[in-house]
Amino acid sequence: MTSYEHSSQLLRWTLTPEELARRREASNRRTVDAISKCSHAKKHGERQPPLSTEEETILRRFWEGKVQDVCNAFHFPNKIQATAVTYLKRFYTDNSVMDDVPKHIMLSCIYLACKVC
Fold first, then answer.
1. How many other C-beta atoms can be found within 10 angstroms of the C-beta atom of residue 113?
2. What pLDDT score was predicted for residue 35?
3. Closest to 12 measured CA to CA, from 72, 75, 86, 74
4. Quick one: residue 107, left, alpha or beta (phi over 0 = left, psi -120 to 50 = alpha)?
5. What gap in Å lies between CA 45 and CA 39, rounded to an integer?
6. DSSP string for 104-115
7. Which residues contact 70 (CB under 8 A, 6 or more apart)?
8. If you write DSSP's letter for every residue of 38-90 in order, what string do you get?
């Protein structure tokens, strides 16, 4: 078995708060730039303005809570719940909630956690 010091967990997923904030800000910036370049968004003013990084954080936390609600409703073990929340957090480290439907990602994370655990 590999020690934690040499694991991919440490190398790829253990981030400082500053690194995590930088990656999430970059993800938000990429999405906002893509939205602003979209010609359809410029022609039709009915689109909502893009989310700020703080608003994305609020949405991520909301969906983390929903993972817990779904897991509790199905009486899944805590290990599955923790794994699903971890998958959701990892997905949204470099992806924006504006790019993918959070409900679909949440359900996918729960499914994967059930399969892995």
1. 23
2. 84
3. 86
4. alpha
5. 11
6. HHHHHHHHHHHH
7. 106, 107, 110
8. -HHHHH-TTSPPPPPHHHHHHHHHHHHHHHHHHHHHTT--HHHHHHHHHHHHH
Instruction: Quote the tokens at residue 55.
Output: 């608003």
- What one-letter code names the amino acid at 43? K
Res 13: pLDDT: 74
Token pair belonging to 21: 């904030």
Contacts (Cβ under 8 Å, ≥6 apart) of 63: 88, 97, 102, 103, 105, 106
What whole-number distance in Å separates Cα of residue 100 and Cα of residue 108? 12
Average pLDDT per consecutive 10 residues, the chain (117 residues; last block may be shorter): 64 84 93 79 64 94 97 97 96 93 97 95
The torsion defined by the Cα of 84, 24, 8 and 112, in degrees rounded to 10, comes to: 20
User: What pLDDT is stored for residue 7 in this prediction?
Assistant: 67
From the CB of residue 30, how many other CB atoms can be counted at a distance below 10 Å?
15
